[in-house]
Amino acid sequence: MQTTNINETNPLPPGQPSPATEIRSQGAKDRPSFFERYAYGVKAVLIGILVIFLLIPTAMILGLISEREQRQYEAKGEVSGKWGDAQTITGPVLVIPYYSKPGVTSTAVFLPDKLAVNGELLPEIRRRGIYEVAVYSSHLQIKGAFSALDLSGLNIDPATVLLKDAYLAVGVNDMRGITNQAGVEWNGQNLYFNPGIPATNLFEHGMQVKVPLTISDSGIVAGNFAVNLDLKGSGQLFFSPVGKTTTVDLNSNWKSPSFDGAFLPNTHNVHAKGFTASWQVSNLNRNFPQSWVGANANLHSADFGVKLFLPVDTYQQSTRAVKYAILIIGLTFLVFYFIELLQHSSVHPLQYILVGAALCVFYTLLIALAEQLNFSIAYLIAAVLTILLVAIYTASVLRSNRMAIGVGGVLSLLYGFIYVIIRSEDQALLMGSLGLFIILAIVMYFSRRIKWGEL
Fold it and tell me: Residue 421 and residue 435: Cα distance in Å, rounded?
């Protein structure tokens, strides 16, 4: 049987596709592409990438905060360098030279039995540019007494002691802070200090004065002392508990003290006009003896005192705010994504980037304003400006005032939530966890309305 070719019996014009080819082409056109079938899924992945991408400028903002904070430290250092650094008072202690070997001189150190410090702290705020530094002046009355000094306990021969070279030493961190001609009343005799400590391993900085001593059958007879010291410093004032019994009483008009060091006050009262604090430390509470020869004891291992705490740390709070940037950006983008799904609107990726950039600029506004204003006021201004900018842009993009108000309301809640977390340091983890749980519940609730199978 002879086979007939269709093309031979019904020839097609040149370039004309065959019916079979047309059917295959039509089927290919009707079948959606991968991006058409998974458009919303691809958009979700793209939005996630944008959120991660926008973490780069937030990391740069953290670097900016560190830079500004370093400038603040430098400003504080400049003020402290001219006024006086953080001060620590150590002593008085009694240093007695003796011959440990023929022609070789050593020193024996004796600490007082009783040491009582009564001081008044007068702080003030100094400015260096836009930065504030807490400095102070102080009036200190240091009183105490040495009992008879037992040389036999240190294996020192009384005949080798150089009594004429014995001196009373007081350690002071920054000698530039001394504002009076410091002197000591030693057994009723007025003597004046000289700068420097001959035994350099005792204190790094300090002052000393030779004091008269006598030897009796019970040992070296020392006596009572009273030192009046006017001292300037910055940041903190600490004391070393060198007495067998050490008591320190401070009063000040500073309203936000931070008690720090090895010991907290036994009693303290912080009120609207300042604070009062009292410490009492025994020799059993510290880790160095009442007397020694040779190697120096670590007299600063038990220091205590007060820091002039500035209540608002702008950079610390700004850093905590930036750490929540991913939450603000991610949830804002999620709101826009849900609007696209539920309202069948379209937001271009570039518009997501512009909204994200506005959310990042919030933090630079916050830092700049907080350096000039109270942190709470700065946060409010920066948040209001950012919310208005994003809401107005949303109204333009989606052509819906209702959507713009909704986005603005969500941002207001988010910024308010972050502010509460920043201010509540002790409950930040609890509040943050509960807030994230509630946000997740809301997202899950609205996502159930989306018919994912039809997208």
Answer: 10
| Neighbouring residues of 284: CB distance < 8 A, sequence distance ≥ 6 | none
- In this predicted structure, which of 90-99, 275-284, 304-313, 410-419 has the lowest mean pLDDT? 304-313
pLDDT winner (highest mean) among 119-133, 245-259, 439-453: 245-259
Q: CB under 8 Å to 240, separation ≥6 — which residues?
A: 88, 89, 90, 91, 171, 299, 300, 302, 303
* pLDDT at residue 7, rounded to an integer: 47
What per-residue confidence (pLDDT) applies to 279? 95
DSSP states along 95-163: EEEEEEETTEEEEEEE--SEEEEEEEEEEEEEEETTEEEEEEEEEEEEEEE---B-SGGGT--GGGB-G
- Cβ neighbors of 435 (< 8 A, separation 6 or more) are 417, 421
Would strands 114-128 and 245-252 be described as parallel, antiparallel, or unpaired? parallel
Q: Is 146 exposed, middle or buried (0-12, 13-18, 19+ CB in 10 A)?
A: buried
CA-wise closest residue to 131 among 172, 93, 75, 171: 75
Angle, CA 283 vertex, CA 282 and CA 286 arms, to 5°? 100
Residue 418 corresponds to which tokens in the numbers above? 């972050």
Count Cα atoms within 13 angstroms, Cβ side, for 173: 21
Three-class DSSP category at 68: helix
Structure-token match 């000393």, residue found: 208
Query: For 184-195, what is the mean pLDDT?
Result: 90
Q: Which residues contact 84 (CB under 8 A, 6 or more apart)?
A: 135, 174, 176, 177, 231, 232, 233, 234
For the stretch 92-104, pLDDT in tens is: 999 988 888 887 8
How many other C-beta atoms lie within 10 A of the C-beta of residue 393?
16
Collapse the DSSP code of 193 into the 3-class scheme (helix H, G, I; strand E, B; otherwise coil) and give the result: coil
